[in-house]
Amino acid sequence: MARVPESLKAGVIVSLGTDGAASNNNLDMLEEVRLAAMLHKGVSGDPVAIPAWEALRMGTLDGARSIWLNDVGMLKPGMKADFIALDIDQPHFFPRTNFISHVVYAASSRDVTDVCVDGHWIVRNGACLTIDEEKVKFEAQRCFERLTSG
Predict the structure, then answer these.
(1) How far apart are CA 139 and CA 136, in angstroms?
(2) pLDDT of 119-146, one tens digit each?
(3) Distance of CA 60 to CAs 23, 56, 134, Å?
(4) How far is residue 125's CA from residue 128's CA, in Å, rounded to a whole number?
């Protein structure tokens, strides 16, 4: 396991990502953020080894910084408008206490309702606007069957 708490203390920019469908089929960045926070607590025995805010930062701003992107990773003037919206009207977002903790420890990609990339809507109200999802699923299944048929 990577020594993330020690790396952070040494000033290393630590970022999170998904390797791709070959090693992680769900590509859920919120899951990666949660795992980064929780695994290091368990390994170290320190309940604050990676605080929720730091895990979220590793999956957002520090992800951009680690590959030298200076115009993404946060919402502010001059930055690209890349963001998601979550449906927080669900039991796992209650009680309304620390929203960052709720996102890190309870949210998943299934809670995402909207996605905006560089100011362009990609997903609105859960519907993908840029591709034909049914066609993609059909083609993926067709290719799998072709590859596995004898």
Answers:
(1) 5
(2) 899 999 999 999 999 999 999 999 999 9
(3) 21, 6, 30
(4) 9
